[in-house]
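Summary of Year 1 activities. Much of the first year was spent building the evaluation harness for sequence design. The harness presents a backbone, in tokenized form, and records the residue chosen at every position. We chose the following record to illustrate the format because it has been used consistently in internal testing since the harness was completed.
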């Protein structure tokens, strides 16, 4: 896609580089992430083995392991093997190795199960938020809900203990304010002054994250008169929700929440594929259709959610419109590198850059 087509999304598109860490330049980071990815291989293999009756699964899982471990070994010897070396690349290579052995959607059943479970709590969560005494408290709780929901990530080592819990346990775990990056007050102040026309939200995990974190937040935007494009991955990666799965989740949620149902009917709430195949986000490669729809709908707020989209990539990206970057740092090394404890909160609100900057 030509860069001139991104000026409504990126401020100075030609200067955009999605990746936060350059593992070629940063030897300590390279060593850590290569080791981490190698350790994660076992987790994937075990998950694959426990997840199917297919008699070929053992040999395919072994071949996947060999494929990925070899790729990592090659990168140790020759970090320039792919021309660049970033966390995004390591995660993409992992997905490629899985797909090469026929594992196209390892988390499929798990995602379905988690979506079903989370939907049973949606009505109660919405009622709880509606019961808050004022807007400021409501938005604080909505934002905390998105962050707590983002803990439910099968790609992170640190959260295994909470994956079988609910939103409330996760709300206890996230960092107390002030957060490591704390733009919450700035965001709520902005809401008091402005109603955005249309928000594009790049979403992350299935289950609690999308259903109990993102959907209440979306509903609150809709109630203000902001329309919403939910942008989800085209291809399965980890337990990230895909656009096809999200359509289904939204249909189910619309039976629970009349606000969502009405917005779907009027076209004020739509699901689109982001065109991405991995758990990170390169805004230069979003699908052409989404790119032009964002222009046509006049998107004036972009929300990036989760470690892959707001931390491994795009943490330093300058967007052309108002933006929110939200994530919980579910990796101890990265938290320390950023200067905070495990489960630190990234909550960055940035106004659209003025022409003067």
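For this record, the design step produced the sequence shown next.
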């Amino acid at each position: 896609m030509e860069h001139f087509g991104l000026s409504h999304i990126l401020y100075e598109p030609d200067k955009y580089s999605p990746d936060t860490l350059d593992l070629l330049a940063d030897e300590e980071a390279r060593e850590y992430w290569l080791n981490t990815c190698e350790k994660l291989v076992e987790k994937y293999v075990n998950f694959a083995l426990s997840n199917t009756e297919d008699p070929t699964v053992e040999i395919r899982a072994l071949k996947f392991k060999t494929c990925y471990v070899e790729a990592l070994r090659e990168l140790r010897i020759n970090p320039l093997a792919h021309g660049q070396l970033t966390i995004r690349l390591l995660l993409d290579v992992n997905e490629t190795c899985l797909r090469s052995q026929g594992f196209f959607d390892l988390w499929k059943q798990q995602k379905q199960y988690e979506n079903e479970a989370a939907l049973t709590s949606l009505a109660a969560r919405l009622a709880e938020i509606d019961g808050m005494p004022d807007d400021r408290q409501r938005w604080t709780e909505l934002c905390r809900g998105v962050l707590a929901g983002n803990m439910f990530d099968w790609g992170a080592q640190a959260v295994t203990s909470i994956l079988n819990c609910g939103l409330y346990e996760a709300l206890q775990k996230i960092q107390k304010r002030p957060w490591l990056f704390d733009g919450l007050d700035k965001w709520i102040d902005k809401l008091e002054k402005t109603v955005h026309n249309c928000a594009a939200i790049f979403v992350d995990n299935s289950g609690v994250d999308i259903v109990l974190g993102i959907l209440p937040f979306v509903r609150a935007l809709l109630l203000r008169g902001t329309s919403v494009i939910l942008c989800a991955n085209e291809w399965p990666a980890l337990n990230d929700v895909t656009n096809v799965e999200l359509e289904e989740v939204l249909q189910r949620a619309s039976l629970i929440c009349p606000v969502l149902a009405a917005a779907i009917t009027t076209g004020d709430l739509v699901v689109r594929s982001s065109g991405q195949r991995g758990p990170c986000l390169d805004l230069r490669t979003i699908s052409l259709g989404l790119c032009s729809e964002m222009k046509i709908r006049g998107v004036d707020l972009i929300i990036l959610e989760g470690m892959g989209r707001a931390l491994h990539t795009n943490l330093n990206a300058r967007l052309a419109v108002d933006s929110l970057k939200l994530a919980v740092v579910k990796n101890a090394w990265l938290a320390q590198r950023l200067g905070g404890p495990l489960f630190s909160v990234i909550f960055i609100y940035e106004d659209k850059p003025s022409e003067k900057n």
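The mean pLDDT is 95. Quantitative recovery figures across the full test set are reported in Table 2.
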